[in-house]
Amino acid sequence: MENILEIKNLCKKYDNFELKNVSFTLPKGMIMGFIGENGAGKTTTIKAILDIIKSYSGEIKIFGLDNRKDDEKIKEDIGVVLDDMFFPEILTPNDINNTMQGIYKNWDTKMFNDYLKEFSLLPNKQIKTFSKGMRKKLEIATAISHHPKLLILDEPTSGLDPVARAEVIQIFQNFIEKDDCSIILSSHITADLEHIADYITFINNGEIVLSKITNELLDKYGIVKCTEKEFKDINKKDYVKYKKSKYEYEVLIPNKKEFKTKYNISIIDKITLDDLMVLMIKGEE
Amino acid sequence: MIGFIKKDLAMIKSNFKLLAVLIVVYAIMGLMDKMDISFILPFMCVMIMISSFSYENYNKWDAYSISLPNGRKNSVKSKYITTILMTLIVSIITIILSFIISYVNTQTINYEKILVTMFGTIFGTLLVLTIMYPIIYKFGVEKARIGIFLLVFGIVIIGSLLANFVNLSSILKSLAFLEDYLIIILIIVAIIMVYGSYKISEKIFNKKEF
Questions:
Q1: Could you report the per-residue pLDDT of A60-77, keeping only the tens digit for each?
Q2: A76 and B69 in contact by Cβ < 8 A?
Q3: HEC profile for B104-162?
C-alpha cells in the first residue's frame, strides 16, 4: 500500500524534552489518530512534519517527497488545523478567501463559501467575534477548501464542548467521504478517535509506544481485573503494564485470545483508548 | 506571494481611513499655509505596518504561515513589499498634493524643494523599516519597540559626541559636489539598505523555531 507519510528516526532535542527516534507511516486513504498526553511530543512531531521547527534529524517523506527539499510542492496538497495558530483575528473569512486564492493553486472559493454557509459563519465578521467552536469550524473550512490529499490536524477538538466536538468530527467524516484524503489527527481526547481512526499511533515522553490498526488494537488488547494472587501467576511476557488499586489489579494484556487459553481468569474487559493511555503512562511493568 | 500581500493589506485596511484623514488634514493645513506635515504621511505607513506584527504575533501567524506553500519565503518578502508599496503610494499622493498646494499658494510649483523633502522623507521611512524589521523578526515587536528607543537614543548620543569632536561643516563642504546627485544617491543607498535588511530578516526567519 502506498504511504502518504513516512517518518523515520525523527529526533529533536530541547532543554527539557526530547523526541527520540520517532518513526511511523500513514498509508494512503487512512485516518491516523495520534494520541498521547499533553507534552508527549504530538505537536513537536507535527511541527517537524510541516518544517515549522528546525534542526531536527531523521527523514520525513510526504507523498514520497522530502518535506524540506520539496516544501512548496508538498504544501500545495496539505491542509492544516494547528492548535492556537491561525490568521490574525482582525481578519474576516472574506479576507482569508482572498488571501488563499493567491496562495493555493487549487483554492476553491465556492467550496469555502459553501462551508461558511453550512457553519453559519458570516463572511464579513472579524474572526475575533466568533466563538471558539465557530473559529475551529473556520479553521477547518480553511484547511479543506483546496482539496488537500493530506490533512494534518493538531488537537482540532481541544477546548470544545461535546456538541461542538461531535460537529467537528462529523465535518471530517463528511469530508473523507467526498474527497480521497488521508488524515493525521492528534488529540488527547481519545473518545473522538475510536470511531474514525483506522490507525492509532501512541506517543509517550517523546517516544512512539505503539502504532497499530485501531480495530486490531481494540480487539486484541484487554484489561484483566484480578486479585493479587491471580496476578502473581501471570507470566511477565503475557502483559504489558499493570496498575494496583486498593482491591484489585488492572493488567493490560496484548492478546485477549491467547490469554484466555493460558489462564483461568474470567474478567477481561474491553479496552478503550483512554484505558490504554492511562495504563501505558501510569502503569508499572 | 500575491496571497501574502493581500493578507498584509487586509490587516491594515482599517487604518486606511486614518491615512485618508491625515491626507485631508495635510491638504487643509497646506492650503491655509499653516504647517507642512507631509513628512508624517509616509512614516505613518511604516508605523501601521509595524502595528500589524502585534496581531500576527498574538495569533501565531508566523508559525501558521510556514504550513502554507512557500510560507517561510513569502511571509517576510510580502511584509517588505507591502510596506514599500504603501510608502510609495502615499508619497506619490503627498507629492501631487504638495504640487497643488504650492501652486494654489504661490501660483508656482517649487518642484525641487518638494521633491527633495519627499525623497528625504521616503529615505527616512525606509531607514526605519531597514532597522526595525530585522529587530522585530529577531526579538518580536514588543522588545523591538524598546530596541528602537535605545537605538535612537544611541544615535543621538553618538551624533552629539561626533559633533563635538569632528568638524562637520568642513566635511559637508567637501561633500558639496554630491548635491547634484543627491536624489540618485538616496535611491541607490535606499535600495541597498532595504535589500540588505530584507536578506537579514529572511535569514532570521528561516532559522527561527516556532
A1: 999 999 998 888 889 999
A2: yes
A3: HHHCCCCHHHHHHHHHHHHHHHHHHHHHHHHHHHHHCHHHHHHHHHHHHHHHHHHHHHH
Tens of pLDDT, residues A128-171: 999 888 898 899 999 999 999 999 999 888 778 888 888 888 88
**Alpha-carbon gap: B14 to the closest alpha carbon of chain A (Å):** 9
The per-residue pLDDT for B168 is: 64
Same domain, A57 and A136: yes
Contacts of B78 in chain A (CB under 8 A): none
Indicate the domain borders of chain B. Answer: 2-207
What domain range includes position A278?
Answer: 221-282
List of chain B residues whose C-beta atoms are within 8 Å of the C-beta of residue A99: 3-4, 6-7, 10
DSSP for A62-106, written as a single string: ETTEETTTTHHHHHTTEEEEBTTB-S-TTS-HHHHHHHHHTT-TT
Does residue B143 belong to the interface with chain A, where contact is any CB pair within 8 Å?
no
- Residue % of chain A over a pLDDT of 70: 99
Q: Choose, out of A90, A139, A146, the residue to mutate when testing the contact with B (most B CBs < 10 Å).
A: A90
Q: What CATH number does the domain containing A133 carry?
A: 3.40.50.300
Name the band, by pLDDT with cuts 50, 70 and 90, for residue B101.
confident
A135 and A12, same domain (yes or no): yes
